What does this fold into?
Amino acid sequence: MKPVKTRVILISVLILISVFSIIPSVYQNTPEWWKAVIGNAEMHLGLDLQGGVYLIEKVETGKAVKEKLYKDYADIKSFVESKKIGKTSDLTFKNNYIVLSSSILKNKSGLSALKRYIKNHHVSLNLSNDIISFKPSALSLYKKEAVSGAVEVMRNRIDQFGLVAPKIARQGKNLIVVELPGVKNVKQAIKLIGKTARLTFKLVDDKHSIVKALNGKIPKGDEILYHIKYNKYTHKTTKIPYLLKKTVLMDGSAISSANVQMNQYNQPEVGVSLNSAGTLLFAKITTKYTGKRLAIILDRNVISAPVIEEPILGGNASISGHFTIAQADNLAIALRSGALPAPVKIIQNNTVGPTLGADSIHDGILAAIVGTVLVILFMVFYYKFSGLIADFALLENVLFLMAALSLFGATLTLPGIAGIILTIGMSVDSNVLIFERIREELREGKPVVIAIENGYNKAFFTILDSHVTALITAAVLFYFGSGPVKGFAVTLSLGILINLFTSLVGTKVIFDIISNKKELKKLSI
Amino acid sequence: MEFIKNTHYNFIGKRKYSFVLSSILVIFGIIEIITMIAGTARIGIDFTGGLSMQLAFKHKISISSVRKVLIPAGFKDVKIVKIKGKNDIIIQTKAMAKDLNAYTAKIKKVIKKSFMKNPPKVVSSEMIGPSVGKKLAKDAVIAIIIAIIAIILYITWRFEFRFGLAAAIGLGHDVLALLGVIFIFQKEITLLVITAVLTVAGYSLTDKVVVFDRIRENLKIETEKTKHIDLKGLVNISINEVLTRTVVTSLTVVLVVLSLFFLGGIVLHDFAFTLLIGVLIGTYSSIFIASPIMVILNEKHYK
It folds into this structure.
């Protein structure tokens, strides 16, 4: 007698859990408590099957260019000053050009030094008469880069947000088309991808009065920014003003990674690791300004302004600001994926239907069902009763895979369905291997029970090695791939793991049950 | 039921023919890759971008009726979506930047002619960039290279180095030969086709490990049947022993793929085609490419 109880219980429990997890994905009126038990996990239908949101976002490329010019402006200003060509006030920054004062224009040797400096160090700039501006070629290049950069950052964020199978592409000169399948948290996703996420660190000006500043007397080189506080009980927001030095001490480019962590009060915060340049810079800042308050600003909102207690030399910092976990999560994603090169604005927001017509969906699903039935019939035809056992494992496979995809909140597309069906075709492979082994043993004249036992034992390492090899490929694709390749790798890995279980445990237990019941003289195989 | 019983085919002896056939396919595959890099291969709208056009119809309109008009008119790889709550549709199709206006006019003309009673207005018509980043292609290539190294390491650990190397060569062969067939049939490389190629890679590896596993087993236990023969003979015996399994497994997969091919509609056609060819190549190469290469590697090693 072989003990089968534990395995039967295990498989039954897994089947129950799977059915329980799939129901919210297929039955729309599932009660809320049911959904809550499985963490509101649900399979989503992709753009091709269900449609979704079709957004057109406009990239404000002008702002990206302005910011670039401002950086050059700061550099040229310090050159002019250090070489004593003129004063800083001789250069005036307008939105898309820099004006030179007449005193610089009169200083012939200074002007030619400046011209040389621009020619050698700022190839994209052009000085003519009293104006420094970008060359037309550089201008269009920067604008183009701002859009393609924004597309990459958005893709990156969506990738990290989860498996939602989006589509992001640039359109025309400065537009980006974003298509998101009708996922439940689509609003959150839209918010996340559109976030500029420019992180800056500025010093709080504690020498001047904030009250006076609010009345219009803002000291030179200062600005007022607000911290917006939301009270979750009263649903009221309060704005707390901060008087800050305008100078940016450090920005988001210093960050190498960001993760959500819990602080000692069990509040979510975002832990940030700095890259090597950032670590040095942050150490310098925190040493120089120990005892002062450093404001952390995201897109003109002050997140927090903690006091620098002591110099921070290790390159790790944390940002806390009364976040919910979801907020902290999104902030971490935004910081990891970097800032958008320029702000974006939604100019069109439409809901669209599926890209595939009803007939295509119908064809695809029909093909999937016919394919599955063919495999099932073939196995019975070729392996008789044992084939039936393999078919049981096959159905188990489909059930478990669907459940796992539901729990992962995967997005199902028509090709995805085809892929699952293909896994089915491949899943019988392990049982074919085992059955062929059993047949070999039987041919050598071994008794049925021993033949089964040997068949499984001999096939075990073959199945293990072939599955592990395929799993390595899937894991590498997941780790190094991006976008749709990543989603594919998840489905593939799940399929491999589930198949390993169903073929080795799922079918063996049935053979054991049968051979426990009666002495097997012959095996239908 | 048994298809095959006690076969004694000399698979390794056929290696001259199989190497010639495979070399031709692999060369075509390399040409396909070169044309992909050069941008002259037939690449899907996901990778190239194209034209995005929004049309406002007067009355209700169904996507399939528009598709039925556009495809016979020669527009391939067309994507059409309907905006909910309006009679607007968005058509995406491949077009080059320089013939944007001509393309727009052509689509407009074709549609206007077929929908006389429901004339559309062009809301917008603009170039759209690729929806798959350059990063994806780069990442995928890096991933495949790392995967191959990882596989060689794993198989070397579980088997021997020559098995690992032969499996990796076999895998590379399968991907290239599959691309070669895609080149010969002038199929378009879409995201779906790429997915199919990756699936085939997984299938092909499993298949090779199964064949190698039997060779490993026969190498370990010297029985009456393997005592007096050389490695070539032993590999032949091993392949023959697992032949039924090889045939049955490919058959079940082919059954599924064929139903996708014939019944799955136009959307899954190229996907199913790639899978079908890929599965055949993967099965063929385990026997006719990877195994003889393993034998050759061994001869160099020991003689």
In short: The two ends of chain B are 43 Å apart (CA to CA). The mean pLDDT of chain B is 86. Chain B has two domains: 12-42+133-302, 50-128.
